[in-house]
Amino acid sequence: VQLQASGGGLVEAGGSLRLSCAASGSIVSINVMGWYRQAPGKQRELVAAVGSGGSTNYADSVKGRFTISRDNAKNTVYLQMNSLKPEDTAVYYCNADRVTYYTNRGPNARYDVWGQGTLVTVSS
Q1: For residue 90, which of 56, 115, 119, 55 has the smallest C-alpha distance?
Q2: CA 66 to chain centre
Q3: Sequence-separated (6 or more) residues with CB below 8 Å from residue 36
């Protein structure tokens, strides 16, 4: 089971970016999928999360600007980021708290699975 993030880049303040994170493997289901970020010199923080049923949770700093969504058929989570600010500059990581997948011995689960990170840079 792997998570592959994409979509980062350089954008001017006020601009938009869309991040994607696709899970691969013989996946049965994924519980909560989320996006975290880590700015230089700071701790990693939760940006947004979405449950398997679509319930969402956002950091106060991104409410009204970012939208998280997921496509369960594609095992993919998205983060639409609008009205970007320089303080949004960070490496963004996707996460799945529990991934159930098939093995030749039956279903198994992995917990706290992370993608490789994608850099978002917002210039002022």
Answers
A1: 119
A2: 11
A3: 44, 45, 46, 47, 92, 93, 94, 95
107 Cβ contact partners less than 8 Å away, ≥ 6 residues apart: 28, 100, 101
| Contact (CB, 8 A) for 122 and 89 | yes
Number of H-type helices and E-type strands within the chain = 0, 12
What is the rounded (10 degree) CA torsion for 53, 77, 116, 13?
Answer: -120
Give pLDDT tens digits for 77-116: 999 999 999 999 999 999 999 999 999 999 999 999 999 9
- Any idea of the CA torsion for 69, 45, 42, 88, to the nearest 10 degrees? 30
Predicted confidence (pLDDT) per residue in 30-51, tens digit: 999 999 999 999 999 999 999 9
Give the whole-angstrom CA distance, residue 46 versus residue 22: 18
Residue 83 pairs with which residues in a beta bridge? none
CA-based radius of gyration for the chain: 15
